[in-house]
Amino acid sequence: MKLDLSNNSLSGPIPNEIGNLRSSKLLNLAYNRLTGPIPIEIGKLKSLENLYLSQNRLTGPIPIEIGQCSQLVDLSPSYNSLNGTIPPQLGKMPALNTVNLSHNFFSGKIPCKIKYLDADLSCNNLTDLDLSCQEIVDSPTSLLSPLGRRRRGGGFNYLKLLPVI
Fold it and tell me: Is 86 exposed, middle or buried (0-12, 13-18, 19+ CB in 10 A)?
């Protein structure tokens, strides 16, 4: 099942009942006026491959339960007011390929496994790039641009390198 409700002027919070869409492969709620947090029930969507939440008014952190969406390939909650740290679960999701977390208020460390994804983390308040998981590091600055193999954006953050232990 694919549910595309983008560009519909939807407002209010994403209902917890979103977790009942267990067979959904695509959930597109982008370009609406949705508010509040991403419900933890999103983790019940085990078949979900594409989650688009961009251009809303969502707040709070990305719930760690998103790590239970083992089929998720593309995640885009950009252009919201999400905050907190980037959940390390994003780097552990086997199918996840593309992540756009740009234009939010995320802070803290960038999980090291993010470097393997096509990720846009620009325009946040990220401060630390954790290199402790690097197998081989030729030059730490080579990870900043691009940050990893396929990283698109890292601008407008306040990155500093953490020591490799």
Answer: buried
The helices-and-strands tally (H runs, E runs) of the chain is 0, 13
Which residues have CB under 8 Å from 3's CB, separation 6+? 21, 24, 26, 27, 28
pTM of the model: 0.81
CB neighbourhood size of 155 (10 A) = 12
Which DSSP string corresponds to 82-149?
EEEPPPGGGGG-SS--EEE--SSEEEEEEPGGGGGSEEE--SSEEEEE--TT-S--S-GGGGTTTSSS
Say if CB 103 and CB 78 are below 8 A apart. yes
Quick: pLDDT tens for 89-135: 998 899 999 999 999 999 888 887 776 678 888 888 776 655 555 44
